[in-house]
Amino acid sequence: MKKNNKTVYCCQECGYQTPKWLGRCPECNGWDCFAEEKKPAVHRYAAKQDRAVYQTEAVSMDSVEIPLENRVSTGINEFDRVLGGGMIAGSLVLIGGDPGIGKSTLLLQVLQELANAGRKVLYVSGEESIRQLKMRSQRLGKVSSHMLAASEIDIDAILEMVSSLKPAAVVIDSIQTMYSHDVVSAPGSVSQVREATLKFMVMAKQSGIPIFLIGHVTKEGAIAGPRLMEHMVDTVLYFEGDQNHVFRILRAVKNRFGSTNEIGVFEMKESGLAEVANPSAVFLSERASNAPGSVVTACMEGTRPILVELQALISSAGYGTPRRTILGLDYNRVSLLVAVMEKKLGLNMTGNDIFMNVAGGVKIVEPAVDLGIVSAVASSFLDRPVPEGTLLMGEVGLAGEVRGISHLEHRVAEVRKMGFTRCIAPKNSLKTINKMKDIELIGIHNLSEVMEILF
Question: 269 near 276, Cβ under 8 Å?
Answer without folding.
Answer: no
